[in-house]
Design goal:
Helices cover 48% and strands 14% of the residues. A hairpin with a 2-residue loop joins strand 3 and strand 4. The two termini are 22 Å apart. It has a five-stranded parallel β-sheet. Strands 3-4 form a two-stranded antiparallel sheet. It has 14 helices and nine strands. Helix 10 crosses helix 14 and helix 11 crosses helix 12.
């Protein structure tokens, strides 16, 4: 693919992406970063962890995204009694005993794990292992999952009763972590004003993409930007330096050997993935320093845990990332 082909691909995608955002906007007001980073995760063949209080429109947004990309959508609320078999098997009454059908995980292309931190650790781990490896079990047999699969899992940061800590090894598997905050004043007014109209009529969201198209875009994006991430490139050095600064900052928890537990190498890889997609969404043929800085937040905020001293000082993961970006210089060889 040459520069002209890349430009045509960008224009084609931007036209569809703009239409998709308008379709999603029929039922979602605000949440622009949520929608953008969900597309980033899909184009990066990854998954998204969402931190949000209840009632801010996550389900509506994910359903709208699934509709606009023509993907089969399934939502499953997690709780302490949910077992791995509940993801892959559905048991219902039948004329003669019980009927066992494939569970939501086996059929979903976009799977919403609602309040993942309420599920037991073994169920959390099974979900992510299955979605990463692309296989699961059904009635004793291995079953291949859809080629296009996207897990969105949310955690409720307010309620802690009956919840489990998301293990670092699991949190790292998400390509991005998205924060959903309470809407600003103007968005709140629009939500309140439009809700009555939405109750009175059925809103149809038109399909814009297909899962197959998104997979094709994902592959072409990766191939186009791959030459910029060679050993010794400023991009690789910059992404690595950001992760190393956080590890050495003294703000993260230590492992049993007294070494920083996170972020790991996966943090570097995910900065690379997210930054190239941010560049693509802007129509840039090269990744620029601003793309790496922008990518550091969603790519890293879920990949390390702060120690008690850092929490006591009022630090957050985003503040630590900001400190790293302020401290780590960009190579002079960058564009």
């Amino acid at each position: 693919m040459d520069e002209a082909d890349f430009r045509r691909m960008c224009e084609e995608f931007q036209e569809k992406y703009s239409r998709a955002r308008k379709e999603i906007g029929k039922v979602v007001i605000g949440l622009d970063d949520f929608v953008r980073d969900a597309f980033v995760a899909m184009l990066g063949k990854g998954h998204a962890l969402v931190e949000s209080a209840p009632g801010l429109g996550k389900t509506t947004t994910i359903e709208a995204i699934a509709a606009v990309v023509s993907a089969r959508f399934r939502k499953l609320p997690f709780n302490a009694n949910l077992m791995p078999d509940d993801l892959t098997h559905t048991v219902s009454p039948h004329e003669v005993g019980l009927r066992i059908d494939p569970g939501p995980l086996l059929d979903a292309e976009i799977f919403f794990a609602n309040e993942l931190n309420r599920g037991a650790e073994k169920t959390q781990s099974y979900l992510m292992s299955a979605m990463e490896e692309g296989v699961s079990s059904y009635r004793g047999d291995l079953v291949r999952l859809p080629d296009f699969r996207f897990v969105v899992a949310d955690i409720n940061p307010i309620e802690t009763t009956g919840t489990y800590q998301i293990p670092e090894a699991l949190a790292e598997r998400f390509l991005v972590k998205i924060r959903v905050d309470f809407p600003v004043h103007i968005e709140l007014l629009k939500i309140a004003a439009s809700s009555e109209d939405r109750k009175m009529r059925e809103i149809v969201i038109e399909k814009v993409f297909t899962p197959e198209e998104l997979l094709e875009y994902a592959g072409r994006i990766f191939d186009w930007y791959r030459p910029y991430f060679h050993e010794g490139s400023w991009l690789v050095e910059y992404a690595s330096a950001i992760v190393e600064w956080i590890r050495k900052s003294g703000f993260v928890v230590l492992d049993i050997n007294g070494m920083p537990a996170s972020p790991s190498v996966r943090g570097v890889e995910d900065i690379k993935t997210v930054s190239r997609i941010y560049a693509f969404l802007e129509g840039e043929s090269v990744v620029l320093p601003r793309h790496v800085k922008q990518a550091a937040y969603p790519a890293l905020r879920g990949k390390f845990f702060l120690n008690t001293d850092a929490v006591g000082k009022g630090l957050t993961n985003d503040k630590v990332i900001a400190a790293a970006l302020a401290s780590v210089p960009v190579s002079r060889s960058s564009p």
